[in-house]
């Protein structure tokens, strides 16, 4: 075996689509290429030992924001114990600001951007000569239909136990400055018939959970409808063994035809991730995000009231020009629309993203280490930003977990952001922890907090006990069937 493709995934359940694309497009070198995935947190020595057990001549690493630091340690050790092995890096994290990175210094070669054409070519040169002269190779972007699709490379074990990532299109036509996809010129679709044939084959092999990584699923409504119809047909044919699909949507583009399609999905079959990011028009203009806030709000309201889709809506704190006050207004507005989850993100300066142009004017201070989270800016000082970080963490534990369905509305009342921030400050002051808070302890802490707000002890405990007993889900909740909920939680 000559070539090993590898990466450190964030979790075991995340099967790497990028590596499978590379393997599918290795051409004549495919026979001598293998794929092995690891999970972050594994011991460096073990990873290196297992890589070398393949006796590879070339190792290709997929580098992402979540694994760059650990992979740098792996590459450093690998080059010490086996300096003859050529290390090639690829992936979004090394595709920009490439020459400034320690991991790049340690490696032999880097492929930036798309790897499917350039990585096999580079491997051929490393193995058979002439030896490549350059260290950094700009990835060639072929027409999408020239790419071999990777889905047959999902193993039966992947299908059974892991999230299957799929893509019907690549790229995004929008230019939100905090996002790596802002660098794409447009969105390119894969040939729909081929793509659906691959989905059919995955389905026949037992796949039931499909996570679309398309940045904007609802760009081309005709295509969106055909993909949705594929899933509706499966649901109709086999309602006892339902299929589940996850899509990312832009919120202000939901024509009637799409609404009609969405409304046909039964509970537990559809999940949407919707980026709002900010409801503040001045901030949207600053970061070049084009969004009709009225339409976006109307569409979210329609989805919560007229569809069974589970909705996960993203907001980002720390954007240039966003104050705590304006963020709070956006948060409260979104809460009123009753999505199932609000993903409260903190701005990160992803390598290569144009948001950097605001650094000086808005005093943007980012952590120099991955994931490059914002620490302070002109409008939000460091201590306040840390309060927001804790809010986000506690929000996941209390609100997004769905474990406090009856208590949460009482806790938030008529000022969700302000009241949850007060709770978050209190919880931190009284636990000194944002992680590893066991559920029982959290329940006890929430009960105590409600008492500090004037609630009778017995009432607080009864309210929490009703959640603990799973008495009543949030009004808009459409939980996935048990089997799928388990998969989604993975
Ligand atoms: S945030 Fe979404 S819409 Fe904006 S550039 Fe990124 S992927 Fe595209």
Instruction: Give the CATH topology of the largest domain.
Output: pyruvate-formate lyase- activating enzyme
Report the helical percentage: 40-55%
CATH architecture of the largest domain: Alpha-Beta Horseshoe
Structural class: alpha/beta
Span of the ends, CA to CA? 32 Å
Largest beta-sheet characterization: 6 strands, parallel
Strand order of the largest sheet: 2-1-3-4-5-6
Identify the CATH homologous superfamily of the largest domain: tm_1862 like domain
Present as ligands are: iron/sulfur cluster
In percent, how much strand structure appears in the residues?
15-25%
Mean pLDDT: 94
Shape descriptor: globular
Q: Runs with pLDDT <50, length 5+?
A: 471-490
Q: Which structural traits does this protein have?
A:
18 helices, six-stranded parallel β-sheet, 490 residues, DUF4080, DUF4080 domain-containing protein, Rossmann fold, binds iron/sulfur cluster, globular, Cobalamin-bd, alpha/beta, pyruvate-formate lyase- activating enzyme, cobalamin binding, disordered C terminus
Task: Give a summary of the structure in a few sentences.
The protein has 490 residues and is of the alpha/beta class. It has 3 domains: 3-144, Rossmann fold; 154-378, tm_1862 like domain (pyruvate-formate lyase- activating enzyme); 381-489, no CATH class.
Helix and strand arrangement:
Layout: E1 3-9, H1 17-24, E2 33-39, H2 44-52, E3 58-62, H3 68-81, E4 86-90, H4 102-106, E5 109-112, H5 118-128, E6 136-138, H6 156-161, E7 164-166, E8 169-171, E9 187-189, H7 192-204, E10 209-212, H8 221-237, E11 244-249, H9 256-263, E12 270-277, H10 281-286, H11 293-306, E13 310-317, H12 324-336, E14 341-346, E15 365-366, E16 374-376, H13 382-400, H14 407-412, H15 416-431, H16 439-452, H17 457-468, H18 482-489
The structure holds iron/sulfur cluster (SF4).
Iron/sulfur cluster (SF4) binds at residues 172, 174, 176, 179, 181-182, 215-216, 250, 275.
């Amino acid at each position: 075996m000559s070539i090993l493709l590898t990466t450190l995934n964030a979790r075991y359940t995340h099967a790497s689509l990028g590596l499978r694309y590379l393997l599918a497009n290795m051409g004549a070198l495919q026979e001598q290429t293998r794929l092995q995935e690891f999970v972050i947190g594994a011991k460096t020595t073990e990873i290196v030992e297992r890589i070398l057990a393949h006796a590879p001549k070339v190792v290709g690493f997929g580098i992402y924001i979540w694994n760059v630091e650990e992979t740098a340690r792996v590459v450093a050790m690998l080059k010490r114990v086996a300096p003859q092995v050529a290390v090639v890096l690829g992936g979004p994290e090394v595709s920009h600001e490439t020459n400034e990175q320690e991991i790049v210094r340690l490696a032999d070669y880097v492929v930036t951007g798309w790897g499917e054409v350039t990585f096999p070519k580079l491997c051929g040169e490393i193995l058979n000569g002439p030896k490549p002269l350059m260290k950094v190779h700009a990835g060639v972007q072929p027409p999408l239909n020239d790419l071999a699709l990777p889905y047959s490379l999902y193993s039966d074990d992947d299908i059974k136990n892991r999230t299957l990532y799929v893509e019907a299109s690549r790229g995004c036509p929008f230019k939100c400055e905090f996002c790596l996809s802002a660098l794409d010129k447009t969105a390119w679709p894969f040939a729909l018939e081929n793509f659906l044939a691959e989905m059919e084959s995955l389905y026949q092999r037992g796949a039931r959970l499909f996570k679309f990584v398309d940045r904007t699923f609802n760009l081309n409504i005709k295509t969106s409808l055909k993909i949705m119809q594929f899933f509706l047909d499966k649901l109709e044919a086999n309602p006892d063994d339902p299929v589940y699909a996850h899509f990312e949507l832009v919120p202000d583009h939901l024509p009637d035809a799409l609404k009609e399609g969405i409304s046909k999905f039964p509970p537990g079959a559809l999940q949407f991730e919707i980026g709002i990011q900010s409801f503040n028009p001045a901030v949207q203009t600053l970061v070049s995000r084009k969004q009709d806030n009225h339409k976006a709000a109307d569409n979210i309201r329609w989805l919560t009231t007229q569809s069974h889709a589970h909705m996960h809506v993203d907001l980002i704190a720390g954007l240039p020009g966003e104050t705590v006050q304006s963020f709070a207004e956006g948060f409260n507005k979104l809460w009123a629309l009753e999505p199932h989850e609000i993903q409260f993100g903190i701005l990160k300066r992803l390598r290569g993203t144009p948001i950097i142009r605001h650094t000086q004017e808005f005093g943007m201070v980012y952590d120099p280490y991955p994931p490059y989270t914002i620490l302070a800016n002109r409008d939000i000082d460091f201590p306040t930003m840390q309060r927001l970080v804790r809010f986000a963490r506690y929000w996941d534990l209390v609100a997004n977990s769905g474990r406090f369905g009856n208590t949460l509305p009482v806790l938030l009342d008529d000022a969700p952001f302000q009241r949850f921030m007060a709770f978050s400050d209190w919880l931190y002051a009284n636990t000194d922890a944002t992680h590893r808070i066991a559920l029982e302890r959290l329940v006890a802490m929430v009960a105590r907090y409600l008492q500090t707000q004037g609630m009778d002890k017995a009432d607080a405990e009864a309210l929490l006990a009703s959640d603990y007993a799973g008495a009543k889900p949030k009004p808009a909740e459409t939980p996935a069937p048990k089997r799928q909920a388990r998969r989604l939680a993975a």
